[in-house]
Design brief:
By secondary structure, the protein is α/β, with parallel strands linked by helices. The protein has 23 helices and 30 strands. The radius of gyration is 24 Å and the shape is globular. Bound molecules: 5'-O-[(S)-ethoxy(hydroxy)phosphoryl]adenosine.
């Protein structure tokens, strides 16, 4: 990390927005002044750009920290805000989704059509007995029905839990159980890398033999036919979307729900083996998702074509595919597949074809395009792009410069946006028409957001120093808790700086001489691989769940393309070691983790070692393993129970 910091600190390039961009930008410098003058009034004003069935009179109730309530006596319907109100305002013919499947099939869906589909789907869900507060799991490819499903659940005041389609049946099952989902919405499969990736079979497996597990809560599975792969069918439980939804009535009244009505649960990795169900509610979440999309992505709904490349299985897909852009009435591209199928220029072909004006993606994607070379994007006309965004992990200055030059035609501003599943929406970012940007820095808190960088005791470190990122005041789209575990919520985020009442984000950060923020990665056992959060402990428990493994330790090692990579060190049981060759075992364990958690968690390297470095109290010293994984000289080993262990491990790894 230290070489990275040194490198960042020598970065002194600056890019001001062009006068034309600044003149037309929605986010202006006045916003900061307004928010500084009266933070709550500022957020109230943003909230009022939504439609409230019952206007709120109270902005923030922070009487029981850390449990915040925003706009608490107001009532709204989230789906109405994303759909009906645009149709009622005369924009029903505007395209909401420019969808493209991986094989090249296309659909253009207007706001009127999407509203119609969501109303029908809402009627179907209600017909299946789903009501206010019930949980619905969504396990789908990136197809329009996925967005429609989320909105249909929101429309009836139920709670969705979207589970990324790349997760395994096991991961799906534990999330369905934790939330007690009543219905699962899925598809037969989706297209990924030119093949059908089956989804319904994974749902069947998750809902299959439960052994001694908790009782089944799922009553129905609603299935979109996408790929036509063979699926097994349970007549009592399973329903085809294409049978039920078109046949349902297109009349559905969007009833108002309280601002604090839960909207969704989204599972994310923490520092323990068990994923946390992050809970978000309605009014505050939608306010900040819409506001940030408007001012950070500079959305002009009548002229822009926005494309956020995230999957709806992640928070970025929730806030900047479904809720933010649709609340703003924007037109956006939705793409089912991978960036390199059927050819490595696929994304740029889509930018050209749909005249995308704003692209929002992750540094890992940019770095892999960079590796392939500029010749590929140069084959396409990318002149429509006027703004670029980055999210999910720190973006290194080289990738930032490449993004600007090669994709952004040397003119498009880049907004590097820092936020988390927990924060619900962007927190730290440049405003594209205001901020002079610096390659590699996320820079400044948005208007209405209060952050700081502090030391371990909560003291401000001041400009020129590094420390821990904290959020010092509640914000509208903040998580309201962890599903079913209020204690873990308090413990994970609020205990560390209890005295000051700060939210602890888990990220290291540094303030430069101008007070701009540079993010330095996680300070806990959470890894960030290709912008996806993974827990070291979760992968370790998957590994030790394999019968060949006696012990396992996992670290995130820096990786040129993916930011970090999963590197695991395992001790194999004697009996297995004798009977199997190590390479075969390593390969087996890689796929094992893929089956247990999902392909994204598969270790890049599996090192079979004889011992793990432990302190006298038995704690694994991951820091030392990270040194080995990154090919560095091993650091201070004096606190190890057996100081010779590291040289043995280093030798085994080579
Ligand atoms: C990291 C994704 C540096 C950070 C929206 C955070 C970033 C975690 C940035 C949250 C950024 C996200 N610069 N680091 N612009 N954006 N991160 O919950 O470590 O999937 O804590 O939310 O990603 O990941 P999550």
């Amino acid at each position: 990390m230290s070489s990275q910091i040194d490198h960042l600190l020598t970065e002194n390039r600056r890019f001001a927005p062009s006068p034309e961009f600044a003149a037309n930008a929605i986010g202006t410098a006045e916003l900061y002044a307004q928010a500084d003058a009266d933070r709550e009034a500022f957020w109230a004003e943003q909230a009022r750009s939504l439609h409230w069935h019952t206007p709120f009179t109270e902005v923030l109730d922070w009487s029981n920290p850390p449990f915040a309530q925003w706009f608490t006596d107001g009532e709204l319907n989230v789906a109405y805000n994303c759909l009906d109100r645009h149709v009622e305002a005369g924009n029903g013919d505007r395209v909401a989704l420019l969808w493209e499947g991986e094989p090249g099939d296309e659909r253009r869906i207007t706001y009127a059509e999407l509203t119609d589909e969501v109303k029908r789907a809402a009627n179907v869900l209600e017909g299946l007995g789903v009501g206010h507060g019930d949980r619905v799991a969504i396990y789908m490819p990136m197809i329009p029905e996925a967005v429609a499903a989320m909105l249909a659940v929101a429309r009836i005041g139920a709670i969705h839990s979207v589970i990324f389609g790349g997760f395994s049946a096991d991961s799906l099952r534990s999330r369905i159980d934790d939330a007690g989902a009543k219905v699962v919405i899925t598809a037969d499969g989706g297209y990924r890398k030119g093949r059908v990736s089956p989804l319904k079979p994974a749902v069947d497996q998750a809902l299959g033999d439960r052994g001694a597990g908790p009782q089944e809560t799922v009553e129905h599975v609603l299935v979109v036919k996408r790929t036509g792969n063979e699926v097994s069918w349970d007549d009592d439980r399973d329903i085809w979307w294409h049978d039920a939804v078109p046949a349902a009535s297109a009349d559905h009244e969007a009833r108002p729900f309280p601002a604090e009505n839960p909207l969704f649960i989204l599972y994310t990795s923490g520092t323990t083996g068990k994923p946390k169900g992050i809970l978000h509610t309605s009014g505050g979440y939608l306010t900040q998702a819409a506001f940030t999309n408007k001012v950070v992505h500079d959305i002009h709904p009548e002229s822009d074509v926005f494309w956020c490349t995230a999957d709806i299985g992640w928070i970025t897909g929730h806030s900047y595919v479904t809720y933010g852009p649709l609340a703003n009435g924007a037109t956006q591209v939705l793409y089912e597949g991978t960036p390199d199928t059927p050819h490595p220029g696929r994304w740029w072909e889509l930018v050209e074809k749909y005249r995308v004006t704003i692209l929002y993606t992750a540094p890992t994607a940019i770095r892999s395009f960079m590796k392939l070379g500029r010749a590929i994007p140069k084959k396409f006309d990318l002149s429509s792009l006027r703004l670029l965004g980055s999210v999910g992990e720190p973006i290194n200055p080289e990738a930032w410069m490449w993004y600007r030059k090669i994709i952004g035609n040397k003119t498009a501003p880049i907004v590097d946006t820092w936020w988390q599943t927990e924060t619900g929406a962007i927190m730290v970012s440049a405003l594209p028409g205001v901020t002079e940007t610096k390659p590699g820095s996320a820079q400044v808190p948005l208007p209405g957001i209060a952050i700081d960088v502090v030391d371990d005791d909560g003291n401000r470190v001041g400009n020129g120093n590094g420390g821990l990122l904290v959020i010092t005041k509640p914000w509208p789209s903040m998580l309201r808790g962890i599903w079913g575990d209020p204690e873990r919520f308090v413990e994970t985020y609020w205990e560390k700086f209890q005295k000051q009442g700060y939210y602890f984000a888990g990220d290291g950060a540094r303030l430069d001489e101008d007070g701009d923020v540079w993010f330095l990665g996680r300070v806990d056992d959470v890894m960030n691989v290709s912008g996806h959060r993974l827990s070291t402990t979760e992968i370790e428990s998957a590994l030790v769940g394999n019968e060949a493994v006696a012990e396992a330790a996992v670290v995130g090692a820096s990786d040129e393309t993916t930011g970090q990579a999963v590197v695991s060190f395992v001790i194999i049981k004697e009996s297995y070691l004798a009977a199997h060759d190590p390479e075969g075992l390593a390969a087996q364990l890689r796929s094992w983790v893929g089956e247990q958690i999902g392909a994204i968690a598969r270790p890049r390297d599996v090192y079979i070692v004889g011992e793990l470095p432990k302190t006298r109290s038995g704690k694994i010293m991951r820091r030392l393993l990270r040194d080995v994984a990154e090919g560095r000289e091993v650091g201070d080993t004096t606190t190890l129970a057996d100081t010779a262990v590291m040289s043995i491990i280093s030798a085994q790894v080579k």
